[in-house]
Model the fold of this input.
Amino acid sequence: MLQVRKNRLWKLALILLLSAGGVSLILFSLNSKLDLFYTPSEMLQADIKPGYRIKLGGMVKTGSIIRNGTKLNFLVTDFSKDVAVTFDGIPPDLFKEDSGVVILGYFLNNIFEAEEIFAKHDENYMPPELNIAEVKI
Amino acid sequence: MITAFIHKFSSPKSFVVLTAKLYPYFICIGLCLISLGWIWGLLFAPEDAVQGNSYRIIFLHVPSVIYAELIYFFMAVCALMHLVWRVKLAAYLIKSAAPIGAMITFIGLFSGSIWGIPTWGTWWQWDARITSTLILFIMYLGILTLHGSFSNLEKADRLMSILVVIGVINIPIIKKSVDWWSTLHQPASISVSSGSSIDPSMLYPLLISVIGLGFVLISLGILSSRSYIYTREKNKKWVSEYV
Done:
């Protein structure tokens, strides 16, 4: 390879390395601030000011959904800590037990008051008859 | 050896002659495969156990975002060729691929939003995956704007290439965003290490749609790069002879 091309290649590698380094520093310093939500354990540890709107994410605990008119109570878990959630409204269709959920709202007096509920779905796609078999296992 | 290879295939004239021959085949294969993939996926593939019929937008969403990233990667390789070997054709290809990349990234974001409404319950969240894809879309627009803001086209080509190379950092970030941070978007369904978590009855039409869209996008790229090459080389003898 010609010397002039080698020099250009080195310069380019340096540009790429420096900008990648810069971007990595930004991402490392932002770190968990780039997370969309707190897990229940993180939220209970994080000492969040009352009245501060946050997002909580986790799984809806098995058998914890209690419906009362349009009111909805359930537990969100990360399988080590649970948080009680209350919500007044219509959750998305995919909101159900043992399924991922992201909740926007306020944590007051050990109860999470939800303003909005978003359902997460997993990366598995399969026909209904196969899914029933999988769940039973 | 690399230099010899690059010089052999980097003449705009031989590119135009070669792609003119390939274009009819590519567009035919592309349209056939994408029709097959979509008809199979939309009408014959089973519905999903959790999402019902709403998952079917996967046959548009997944191929679009795959090419949103692949087209950028292609542009980065071209940028390297332009900056190190001063291949003019590489810069022409970046300039003509960027609008296609922007379009397909927009389709990816838009179809993802439509998919989000019935499943997530929201069409937009500032999670790492969605935000980094939006940044990719803005990168495409920025690359085109930067190129358009110089009257000296050689300078425009070079600065655009540098911007393309810097922006390639975003590609691995998009890919790994769902693993590095908590997001509303689910992790990858298909990976080299753990295979596919999509049932074969849905995976085959998806793969066919991906390949089909690839051929369609290459055909679009041939059309747009050909017209751009004519514009840039309009004073060259071969253009007036060939056209």
Notes: The radius of gyration of chain A is 22 Å. The helical segments of chain A are 3-30, 40-45, 128-136. Chain A has two domains: 3-31, 35-119.
